[in-house]
Amino acid sequence: MPVDDGSAAQIVGRLASRIGTYVTRYDNAREPRAVFAYTYLRLTRSLEHALAVGQPSFRDPFWVADLASSLAAEYFAAMDEIDNSIPANASERNSEEEAGELPDVIPRPWRDVYAASAGGHSYVLEDVLFAMMAHISYDLPIALRRMSARLDVQAHIADYHLMNDVLGSAIDEIQDDLASRYCRGLADLDRLFTRQDELFTNYGIRVARGMAWFNFERLSDPLAAAAAERSIQASAGAFIAQVRAPDDWKLRIALQAARILIPARRQWPAPDTGQQA
Fold it and tell me: Is there a contact between 275 and 177 (Cβ–Cβ < 8 Å)?
């Protein structure tokens, strides 16, 4: 995606404003996708601020803005395709039935995430974890590969890792804001999901984005591309299965019992407040 006119911070700021429209739309519809949209909005605002103040000192701020734009384009395309494919009344959705009917133009990871969260049976923490996995493990290597067709992505690995620092450092505050906005029992859900929520941490963000870079390199190698494509296509679904049905049978039974005892409750912000962050 070509970089627009304006400073790098302004470019990312416009992206954040557009993401905010998705937050508003999904909040008003009481749609589970609002949780990740809000997380994504906050992460993007953190990157905008870092670019505006020059801390950290990126070697090529416009490349950073370009990557943010290319990555957001993958998210926008997937969400718009889902929005165009589901019933207007989100409260009447049936997850399995509708996920099966979603067109193949929607990447498989996002179809898997939609199936896991639709129908009102997901937890807030699942809504953010599953979507974050799809966005980082699938969208990010795809965005990097598309960018590599017009510029040398490898030359910007230092800025890529500085982005990891910015995004990882923002996670703790975002977790607190998510709890206040959607689920005041988020800390209790941390205990429910034990170690399976590590993705939603400073360390987890860095590791996941490091793996995304590795998969981008695999996609760029003709001998490894097919296997890499299969891997990133299956990544979100495999993660969802591990969270909901872990290999350890004792943990699996404990989680099933906990799901019966702990309702997937959440609260919603007042209408039309989604872009505020």
Answer: no
Number of Cβ within 10 Å of residue 17's Cβ equals 14
Residue boundaries of the structural domains of the chain: 8-261
Residue 266 structure tokens? 């959440």
pLDDT of residue 74: 98
Q: Which two tokens mark 115?
A: 């199936």
User: Residue 96 is encoded by which pair of tokens?
Assistant: 């399995």
Q: Under DSSP, is residue 274 helix (H, G, I), strand (E, B) or coil?
A: coil
Residue in the structure block whose two tokens are 């290597």: 141
Most confidently modeled of 100-114, 132-146, 188-202? Answer: 132-146
Between these two residues, 210 and 123, which has the higher pLDDT value? 210
Which residue matches tokens 């905008």? Answer: 48
C-alpha closest to that of 112 among 131, 91, 93, 125: 131
Q: In the chain, what's the furthest Cα-to-Cα distance?
A: 56
Instruction: Write out the DSSP string of 76-127.
Output: HHHHHHHHTTS-S-GGG--HHHHHHHS-TTS-HHHHHHHHHHTTTTS-HHHH
With tokens 């009481």, the residue in question is: 30
**CB neighbour class for 33 (10 Å; exposed up to 12, middle 13-18, buried from 19):** buried
Give the per-residue pLDDT at 4: 46
- Rounded to an integer, what distance in angstroms lies between the CA atom of residue 83 and that of residue 103? 11
Helix (H) or strand (E) holding 65: helix 61-83
Cα radius of gyration rounded to whole Å, the chain: 18
Position 274 scores a pLDDT of 46
CA-CA-CA-CA torsion sign (118, 273, 45, 175): negative
- Which of 55-64, 117-126, 169-178, 186-195 reaches the highest mean pLDDT? 55-64
